[in-house]
Amino acid sequence: MLQLNAKLQTLIRALWDRFWSGGISNPLSAIEQITYLLFMKQLDDLDLKRERDAAFNDDTFTSRFSGEFFLPYDTEKKNPIDKATLRWSHFKEMKADVMLAHVQQKVFPFIKDLNGDGSTFTRHMANAVFLIPSANLLQGAIAIIEDIFVEIEREGREEGHLFQDIQGDVYEMLLSEISTAGKNGQFRTPRHIIKLISELVNPQLGHRICDPACGTAGFL
């Protein structure tokens, strides 16, 4: 699908160019930082969707961005941070220099500690580092990612493609820009193969599934 979408291809190449020209020339470091930004965007989008769905169905919903957050070193909890300010939709509107400090010093620590101490997610994020060095790079990357998601939504709406499939295509193209992508062994399973294997395995409610290399989780 993505191979036919020239606009998405152009946007992804522009995102790579932005990182290279912005001082992150190591492609593995670049895709790591891009992944963090994509996660921040998706986390906010999903939270807002669940909030809308709950309101529509008259259900109770507690947002991940409700309440206060305290930085790990603020052991006495003297400097509360309003979680609502940690949303992608909030900080993307900030001035570039303010945004960089905010994302680096508040949003990224919040993301690293998302599921609390002791969780698997937190353990895996323990050594994660936010490397984006300049306000201009961050602001430009956020603008391009916004355009990418607008195009993903248009593709899903007008062409009838699954949102997960398009996201998988985007991630695969990001990897294809890395000369070592094949060595990294990260390749998306085509939808028709997923469908065949799912029918053969025939998972039932209550079964447990382990996919240690789930990538964008399209298979799951």
Describe the protein.
It is a single chain. With 220 residues, the protein is mainly alpha-helical. The protein contains nine helices and two strands; from the N terminus they run H-H-E-E-H-H-H-H-H-H-H. The protein has helices at 6-21, 27-56, 88-91, 96-112, 120-124, 135-159, 163-176, 181-184, 191-201, and strands at residues 68-69, 81-82. Helix 1 (6-21) runs antiparallel to helix 6 and helix 2 (27-56) crosses helix 6 (135-159). The longest helix is centred in the first third of the chain and has 30 residues, at 27-56. It is globular.
- DSSP strand tally: 2
Overall mean pLDDT score?
Answer: 82
Chain oligomer state: single chain
Our count of helices gives 9
Proportion of helical residues: 55-70%
**Major sheet: arrangement of strands:** 1-2
- Topology pattern, helix = H, strand = E: HHEEHHHHHHH
Largest sheet: 2 strands, antiparallel
Query: How big is the Rg?
Result: 19 Å
Could you say which structural class the secondary elements and strand pairing correspond to?
mainly alpha
Q: What is the molecular shape?
A: globular
Q: Roughly what fraction of the amino acids lie in strands?
A: under 5%
Distance between the termini: 20 Å
Low-confidence stretches: 180-184
